[in-house]
Amino acid sequence: MTLNDLRPRAATSHVYEIEALKGPEEVVQRLRELGFCEGGRLEVLGRLPFGGPWLVRLGVTSFALRSEEARCAEVKVVA
Amino acid sequence: MSARHIALVGAPNTGKTTLYNWLTGSRFKTVNYPGATVEYAIGDLVAHLREDGESSPFRLIDTPGVYGLNPKSADEEVTVKALFQLPGLGAVDGVLVVVDGTQLERHLHLALEVKNAGFPFVVAVTMADLLRREGLELDLAALSKSLGAPVVSFEGLLGGGLREIVTGLRALPARGEVRAPEVKIEVAQRQARELATLALSRVDRPQERLRRVTENTRRLDAVLLHPILGPVLFFLIMTLLFSSIYWMAAPFMDFIDGGFSSLAAWAHGEGEVGPLRDFVANGVIASFGAVLVFVPQIFILFIGIGLLESTGYLARAATLIDRPFSKLGLTGRSFVPILSGFSCAVPALIATRNISSRRDRWITNFVIPLMTCSARLPVYALLLGFVFADQPAFVAGLALAGLYFGAMLIGAVAAAILNRLIPKDAASILMMELPLYRRPRLRVVLRQSLTRTWAYVRRAGPVILTIAILMWVGTNFPNYDMEDPTEKLAQSYAGRIGQWIEPVVQPMGVDWRVGVGLMSAFAAREVFVSTMAVAFHVTAEDEEGQAASLMKQMETATRASDGAKIFTPATVAGLIVFFMIALQCMTTFAVAQRESGSWKFAFGQLVIFNIVAYVLAILTVHGLRLIGFE
Q1: Chain A residues near residue B426 by CB distance under 8 angstroms
Q2: What is the domain partition of chain B in residue ranges?
């Protein structure tokens, strides 16, 4: 399951762990540089309407990710 | 010994520019948005941090924020170039790595890359004040030992830690060979995480404490990035920004206008006067008055944008606008350059270096000159003030806000057309960090706005003076002593040139005098207003303010050919449409060429915009007449 497959409203009450980062090389490299990595804990803060960016928090930092970018993060529920 | 070159390197929003300002004593603004430092700045160490009688031991270089040393966007390239290929110097002698103390896990890998590349370095850990407040005591000694470099805590508000940083930089060993770092990002990431854990090892429940630092930001984002409230508030904030330019500036404008009128009357004196007094009062003072009266509006626009920049809201605005922008072939990252296009297209074109996709950047650069830059403001203020003269001030304010949104709409149409024409290449990227909200530092914003406003005045000044001289001579000679002002103008040099080009402007419903104004606007858009003041013979004898006097002249001006009024709602709308689209600024043209690296791009923009502006202006005038407007 990728971050982009989650249902925004329901996802806000869980914590996720990143299992893998897969996808276009350029996008994955950038995600890593921003601090996304396997084992990282993700919270979903919400999503802007009409398929807009996902708002997520990794550690103490918030990020906005487009759906193409969210699709690169495979996640599982941990809490 | 000559000064050693030290580059400051760090992720966006780490407080790098704040540290740079403390070290060099310069007054660059700090901006809470990824990609604010678009070119690198070089400065000497501020005097009080040097030893007695010493010249600066370092040349300090501030660079655009980067997440790694593997460049992907134009501004990251600037940083990597500054590190490895400083013009005439080769690589820098040392690096000051700036990391955010609340983000060690994410930022320390940059220090590892710098180390791997072979640079001697010092690490400055910022946000020390925030950390202390939450009881987060970092073990910097352990971090320093592990990294093999000095690690110093730095506090941006009061400058705590500066001396230690300078001591660390002085003790840096000589640089050996450097090379592009060969460390895999996954490995550097893991090491950075271990280092962060080490630094936090003495803190009880560190993650929980770090979270508390972000508490306020989280609450604000729940509202400002709310799926429904977010876009609504975004729209309200932008409307407030653009309409406040009008109503907040009004009292200051009246004051300046009155001042220039008195000045002109005083310079002119009583009764019949010679050409010199006439020139000073009706040529120079009238010209400067006509343009400078709009300075308060420009100042307020700069303050508004400055406030948005320093709070951290712009990253949210970029996020909110990403989805609609992506339909136009732009990205949320295009928003900040486009917004700064509302003050001036030149820095806006440079700010697009933060956009990593070439195609996104190209389209953004193409539409930026369509945004309502500050030089258009005087023109719109005059034309709207004329049309809405009998209405309360907020009507003109709303109309102006409408023009700003109109500019965005035209930009959107242009972008959508390009988006269809240009084939898609690599992925377009948003992926943006949303920085913590910070209280705007009012003093910094005010000082910055003053600097930018002054730069506008200084740039416009010589152009206004030159055009004022040309216009005054052009409209008063060769028949200086002629009695009838209308006849005198028509027979003057400017009148003859104007009549020669009149066929070109006639379809827009205006006469040669406006044509001369439009021509002069290619020197600088705002000069249109001062040219009009001279062409329509606003004189020092008028009792009321000069702006009011110019509007009165416009009210009564008629075409010589058929005696019809020149300035009707239809022709004024046509002029506004022309100014909205036409590319009249040669600096923009030059910078567009440099930033795109393409003459084809720059010339294409220039030719297309001006032709479209002309055609649409004519269509507007005749379209409005067709549906019953004058």
Answers
A1: 26
A2: 4-213
Q: Which CATH architecture has domain B4-213?
A: 3-Layer(aba) Sandwich (3.40)
Whether B30 has a pLDDT exceeding 60, the answer reads no
Q: What angle do CA A7, A9, A12 make, to 5 degrees?
A: 100
CB atoms B434 and A61 under 8 Å:
yes
Q: Please report, as a single letter, which amino acid is at residue B278.
A: D
- B189 touching A, CB under 8 A? yes
- The two counts, helices (H) then strands (E), for chain A are 3, 5
Which range is least confidently modeled, B95-99, B218-222, B442-446, B456-460? B456-460
Confidence of residue B544 (pLDDT cuts 50, 70, 90): low
CB contact under 8 A, B431 and A45: no
The nearest CA of chain B is from the CA of A60 a distance in Å of: 6
Least Cα separation, residue A7 to chain B (angstroms): 14
With a threshold of 0.95, tell me whether the complex ipTM lies above it. no
Write b or e for each residue in B242-280: b if 16 or more Cβ atoms lie within 10 A of its Cβ, otherwise e. Answer: bbbbbbbbeeebeebbbebbebbbebbeeeebeeeebbb
- Chain A interface mutation, best of B225, B424, B436, highest count of A Cβ atoms under 10 Å: B225
Q: Which domains does chain A have, with CATH numbers?
A: 3-77 (2.30.30.90)
**Rounded to a whole number, what is the distance in Å from the CA of B112 to chain A's nearest CA?**
13
Q: Tell whether the model's pLDDT for residue B124 goes beyond 80.
A: yes
In 3-state terms chain A splits into helix, strand, coil percentages (rounded to 5) of 25, 40, 35
Cβ of A53 within 8 Å of Cβ of B230? The answer is: no
Residue B485 confidence (pLDDT): 66
